[in-house]
Amino acid sequence: MDPHPPRGLQLTLLCAKYAQCLLKERTGASPPVPTEFLIPFHMRIELEKMVDCVHMAYQRQVRLDYALEDLSEAIQKGGSGTRAELLRRKFKGPFPPKDDGTNTAQLIDKSMVFVDQQSKVIAWYLPDIFTSQRRASVNAAVKTLSDHPKSALTLSRGSESWRDGFESFSVTPNSELRPGNVVLSIAWYNQGHTSLTRNPGPSAALQQGTKNGTAAFLEASTEMNALFGALLSLVHPRLYDMQRQCPREPQRCDARAF
Q1: One domain for residues 58 and 77
Q2: How far apart are CA 254 and CA 246, in angstroms?
Q3: Domain of life here (predicted)?
Q4: DSSP letter (8 states) at residue 27
């Protein structure tokens, strides 16, 4: 690893290491963790909350009566209705509906992790894992990007993709944010290319930097990205390690391995 990584990456590495040590402390696998004073105080509080949430989820494992491969096979076969409707018909949820006669789904607000028949993690459910202050800061960063005169947030009127089609977004007179999406990555593979044919590089929107507001957005998102990195290191350590290696060892970073 570069002995002098960029500030954002350095913060991510510190947060991830601190979070991993905290989780070991919570599980009794290591003694109390010394305070990491290089991490701002407010972020240490957030990391404590994050680790407690993940630890609680792991203690509430929800076992599913099917395997992840079954879901993939059902999607490939297809059927009537949308993909979501197809999966709901074929695979029942782990929780019964409300017992008030309405047959509506329950609202579960406790952290948990869903595990399939083969003990593979399907999904982590981590409500309220980020503080209200953090959510507000993210909203402010998105608002600044949205208000940029040449914002990278875009839509395509003729697009058939749900990702950037107008029908996928709700636009009202009271909307505060510009509808649209943007992919920002400092190192990713162009569509259709893998580590065998092309080295990763900045995504197209990020190459314009200050012209479309993306550089300022990334700067404002530095702490949030560090927290996301720490969270990834807890719930999927192998994927976290892979994304760390990707910029300098792209040949090791083929997502097909997962």
Answers
A1: no
A2: 9
A3: Eukaryota
A4: T
pLDDT tens across 120-174, in order? 999 999 999 999 999 999 999 999 999 999 999 887 766 677 777 777 787 778 8
Strand partners of residue 174? none
Residue 112 lies in a domain: yes
Say yes or no: 29 and 82 in one domain: no
Structural domains of the chain, count: 2
What does each C-alpha distance from 19 to 9, 64, 94, 220 come to in angstroms?
A: 15, 28, 30, 22
Q: Tell me phi and psi for residue 86, to 5 degrees.
A: -60, -45
Together in a domain, 57 and 159: yes
Identify the residue with better confidence: 164 or 55.
Answer: 55
Backbone angles phi, psi at 226, to 5 degrees: -65, -40
- Which residue range(s) make up the domain with 75? 63-95+105-125
Most confident of 16-25, 81-90, 159-168: 16-25
- Residues 201 and 81 placed together within one structural domain of the fold: no
pLDDT band at 258 (very low <50, low <70, confident <90, very high): very low
Is residue 252 within 8 A of residue 187, CB to CB? The reply is: no
